[in-house]
Design brief:
Length: about 350
């Protein structure tokens, strides 16, 4: 193997079609993202059938764009990494089948990559010195996990959500407050203008499982406040409600992470997934880590959401670990992060 290992990453697990070329897991040579968010917004959420069709239409030019931007041909690549799990099955299948065709035609190794592992890897692109082991919070639209990243391809989940994911709770609370889909970013903006102490919201615990989350009670509390006010003809101050909701999410997440850091002894905390874009959560975790002398890492905003550079990064480490697949690779809608 040469000193320069170039991996093409392909991502199509939800509503972004993306491709990127990454060198040695750390250097982004190109990155192209085609988002469908405007189209799904009309329906208040991602419509899986529409997502699959758009991936079919977009994947060729997105991959070609990434190769052109990198100034490379397929012969220059060392492998083709693709998100194969978890995600919307019809959406995943487009990327997986495209990658299989490309691997067959070019004779390059096919590298199946787990979407949540890739979110963790978005941090490797931004922080050249970051190496496992570390504790990681993955908070996305579909998942909320506290994970020990033992090595680049070894993970140990110590907590997960029992109901809604953090991003899902943001999006549902936002929808109730009248914000467009996906509403996390709108709550983030509104929260900056509001009073976090204005509404008393619950911080639910899961009995007997200190690191598991339950966000649905918090979400329901927001829905009840908005509906009760509506029935009485009163207007809600959405800035205050956003600030109160975000403060509750930050309390819940930070409290569990600080306890997990104390118990596991990790000296580094990493935030990943779409919700890592939340300014309140980033500031809160940064402050709480500083108090404990723990190093805090989070991705720059362009790498928080779904992208393929993170797939190219994680794909590199999967490749080094020998995790390649044959042309019988299938997409998988649900798959744990810590099982091969
Ligand atoms: O990781 P991601 O892009 O897609 C999945 O793999 O699910 O995460 C999307 C989630 C959405 O729920 C979105 O509302 C949330 O990330 N999100 C945010 C912010 N930006 C995106 N949540 C809170 N604050 C934000 N600034
Ligand atoms: Zn994601």
């Amino acid at each position: 193997m040469s000193d320069s290992v170039k991996i093409l990453g392909i991502e199509s697990s939800c509503d972004e079609t993306a491709a990127a070329v990454v060198e040695n897991g750390r250097k982004v040579l190109s990155s192209v993202i085609s988002t469908q968010v405007e189209e799904h917004r009309k329906y208040g959420g991602v419509v899986p059938e529409i997502a699959s069709r758009r991936h079919c239409e977009n994947i060729c030019w997105v991959v070609e764009g990434a190769m052109q931007e990198a100034g490379l041909t397929f012969a220059d690549l060392d492998g083709i990494a693709v998100t194969y799990a978890p995600g919307l099955i019809g959406a995943l299948l487009v990327g997986v089948n495209y990658a299989k065709g490309l691997a067959f035609a070019s004779g390059k190794p096919l590298i199946p990559t787990h979407h949540l592992r890739s979110h963790v890897a978005s941090n490797y692109l931004a922080h050249p010195d970051l190496e496992p082991p570390f504790l990681c919070m993955i908070a996305s639209g579909g998942h909320s996990h506290i994970v020990e990243v033992l090595d680049y391809t070894r993970f140990h989940v110590i907590g997960r959500t029992r109901d809604d994911a953090a991003g899902e709770a943001f999006d549902k609370a936002a929808r109730t407050m009248g914000f467009p889909y996906p509403g996390g970013q709108f709550i983030d903006k509104a929260a900056k203008l509001g009073n976090p102490g204005a509404f008393q919201l619950p911080r639910p615990h899961v009995a007997g499982s200190p690191y598991d989350f339950s966000f649905s009670g918090l979400k329901t509390a927001v829905i009840n406040i908005v509906h009760n006010a509506g029935q009485k003809g009163r207007r809600i101050n959405v800035n205050d409600l956003s600030a109160s909701f975000q403060a509750a999410v930050c309390d819940i997440i930070s409290e569990k992470l600080m306890a997990a850091l104390a118990e596991t002894g990790h000296q580094k905390l990493v935030l990943a997934g779409g919700v890592s874009a939340n300014s309140g959560l980033r500031a809160r975790l940064e402050g709480d880590c500083e108090k404990r002398g723990v190093q805090f890492f989070c991705p720059p905003l362009p790498l928080c959401g779904d992208n393929a550079a993170m797939v190219g990064s994680q794909g590199y480490y999967e490749f080094l670990a020998g995790n390649t697949a044959g042309l019988d690779l299938n997409a998988v809608a649900s798959k744990k992060i810590d099982i091969e």
